[in-house]
Write a structure and sequence with these properties.
This protein is α/β, with parallel strands linked by helices. The chain has helices spanning about 20-30, 35-55, 75-90, 110-115, 155-160; strands at about 5-10, 60-65, 95, 100-105, 130, 140-150, 165-170.
């Protein structure tokens, strides 16, 4: 799975953060709410990276990742802002937001588990299922969109549920390649 990320995520448990790293972390958490400022900031940074990743004739489908509660509201807002920013910068680019995966039931957040010193959820513990009907494959790039990736398990679980797709995140802890 390829993951497009505009920033490296550094945990404050590893070492003291630089001011830039602290700002990346602040925005990553603000995308969970999300705030308009966080969505706009992330969209401005990510739009050129997403556009550069695909041929101009490729349709880009942004697929919100469900939160541990099952809600896609935060990531849908993030995806909508990214789609709007891509359209503003690249008016001929075809981009859409589509719900493709959901949760069978809420799960405990990997973030909460890590704060307790436990491991995050494994791929099979995410309870993700495909909720989309048939999807066009020709000339289309599918991207799951989330605020951040730590191990990549949530994005991998989304890909497993749908059968394909790559990832777009504001910040990545480092298992995936950061595209700048």
């Amino acid at each position: 799975m390829n993951i497009i990320a505009s920033h490296k995520y550094v945990s404050p448990r590893a070492r003291p953060l630089t001011p830039e790293e602290a700002e990346v972390r602040r925005i990553a958490y603000a995308l969970k709410v999300p705030t308009v400022e966080a969505c706009e900031t992330a969209a401005r940074d990510l739009a050129p990276l997403v556009d550069a990743a695909e041929a101009p004739v490729t349709t880009i489908v942004l697929m919100p990742v469900p939160a541990s509660t099952g809600s896609i509201d935060a990531n849908r807002q993030f995806a909508n802002e990214l789609a709007a920013e891509i359209h503003r910068r690249y008016p001929d680019r075809r981009v859409q937001v589509k719900t493709t995966v959901g949760r069978k039931h809420p799960v405990e957040s990997s973030c909460v588990r890590r704060r307790r010193g436990e491991a995050g959820l494994q791929i099979d513990q995410h309870a993700l299922i495909r909720v989309a009907g048939p999807l066009t494959a020709t000339g289309t790039a599918y991207y799951f969109i989330d605020n951040m990736a730590t191990t990549g398990a949530t994005l991998a679980a989304c890909r497993s549920a749908l059968g394909f797709g790559d990832g777009i995140v504001w910040a990545d802890e480092g298992r995936a390649t950061i595209t700048h």
